[in-house]
Write a structure and sequence with these properties.
It is built from 12 helices and 9 strands. With about 270 residues, it is α/β, with parallel strands linked by helices. InterPro entries: KsgA/Erm, rRNA_Ade_diMease-like_C, rRNA_Ade_Mease_Trfase_CS, rRNA_Ade_methylase_Trfase_N, rRNA_adenine_dimethylase, SAM-dependent_MTases_sf.
Length: about 270
C-alpha cells in the first residue's frame, strides 16, 4: 500500500530545519520523483536513503521494487517518519551514516545509496561510499552544484581534483540535472546538482590502492606544482623523477594515468617502507 502523498506545504509543517545539521528540506514533488528515478540498477535489491527528513524523496523510493532503508541523525525527523510511514518503521535507523557500521543493517549484501545530502558533509559521504564500494554498485543524490560538477569533472579543468580522480577510478560519474534554491525550505544560497555514480565492472585497481590514494592527495594538495615537486617527500630516485609524467601537473592526468604513476612509484615505495 502506497503512502498518501502530501502537498509540499503539509510535508514540511512537521519538522523544523536545523542549521547545524545542514538541513534544507526539498519541497518539489516532481524533483523528488526525478531523483528517485536516478536509481536504475538491477544488481541490488536494497536501497539506503541518507537524511530522509520528512520523506519527500522516501515515498517515491517506496514505489520502486526495492527494500528501502533510511538513516537519519535528527530525532525529530525520525519521530515524524515513524508516525507517517508506519510500514517503514523497522527500516528507520536513527544513526550517523558517517559513523555507523552499515554491515549491521545489510550484512554483506549489495545496496544502493541515495539522498538529498547536507552540503556540510557531502564529500565525507562520498569518501565513505568509496570505502564501501564493494557493496555499493550505484549511488545518486543531490549536492551543492559545485561539488557535484567537481566529482564528475574530467582532467584538464580547474575544478578537477582529488574527489574527481578517486571517484572516477571506481565509478562512472554522470552529472544529471541542476536544481534551483527555490524548491527547498529554507532555500540554500546556491544551486544544487544531482549526479549518479555507477560502479565499474572491474573496480579493483591494478596497483596498491592505499598508495594510489596517497599519491592523488599529495599531488592535489600542491596542485600548482609539477608532480616532480609535489611528490618530492617520497624520496624517489632521480632516474624515476626524470620520467616525463613527473613534469605534469595533477589536473593534467586522468585517473588511468594516476594508476600508471602509482605503478611506477610502487616498487620504490614498497622498498622504502
Amino acid at each position: 500500500m502506497k503512502n498518501k502523498r502530501q502537498s509540499p506545504g503539509e510535508a514540511h509543517s512537521g519538522v523544523r530545519a536545523k542549521k547545524h545539521l545542514g538541513q534544507h528540506f526539498l519541497t518539489d514533488e516532481n524533483i523528488a520523483s526525478k531523483i528517485a528515478d536516478t536509481l536504475v540498477g538491477d544488481n541490488y535489491n536494497k536501497v539506503l536513503e541518507i537524511g530522509p527528513g520528512m520523506g519527500v524523496l522516501t515515498k517515491y523510493l517506496l514505489e520502486k521494487d526495492k527494500e528501502v532503508h533510511v538513516i537519519e541523525i535528527d530525532t525529530e525527523s525520525v519521530e515524524y517518519l515513524e508516525s507517517n510511514y508506519l510500514h517503514l518503521r523497522d527500516r528507520i535507523h536513527e544513526k550517523d551514516f558517517l559513523k555507523h557500521d552499515l554491515s549491521q543493517i545489510f550484512g554483506d549484501e549489495a545496496y544502493a545509496v541515495i539522498g538529498n545530502f547536507p552540503y556540510n558533509i557531502s564529500t565525507q559521504i562520498v569518501f565513505k561510499v568509496l570505502e564501501l564500494r564493494h557493496q555499493i554498485p550505484e549511488f545518486s543524490g543531490m549536492f551543492q552544484k559545485e561539488v557535484a560538477k567537481r566529482i564528475c569533472e574530467k582532467e584538464g579543468n580547474k575544478t578537477y581534483g582529488i574527489l574527481s580522480v578517486l571517484v572516477q577510478a571506481y565509478y562512472e560519474a554522470e552529472y544529471l540535472f541542476t536544481v534551483p534554491p527555490s524548491v527547498f525550505n529554507p532555500p540554500p544560497k546556491v544551486d544544487s546538482g544531482v549526479l549518479r555514480l555507477t560502479r565499474k565492472e572491474n573496480f579493483t585497481l591494478p596497483c596498491d590502492e592505499k598508495l594510489f590514494f596517497r599519491i592523488v592527495k599529495m599531488a592535489f594538495n600542491q596542485r600548482r606544482k609539477t608532480l616532480r615537486n609535489s611528490l618530492k617527500s617520497l624520496n624517489l630516485p632521480d632516474n624515476l623523477r626524470e620520467d616525463a609524467i613527473f613534469g605534469s601537473r595533477p589536473e593534467q592526468l586522468g585517473f588511468q594515468q594516476f594508476i600508471e604513476l602509482t605503478q611506477k612509484i610502487e616498487p620504490y615505495a614498497i622498498s622504502t617502507k
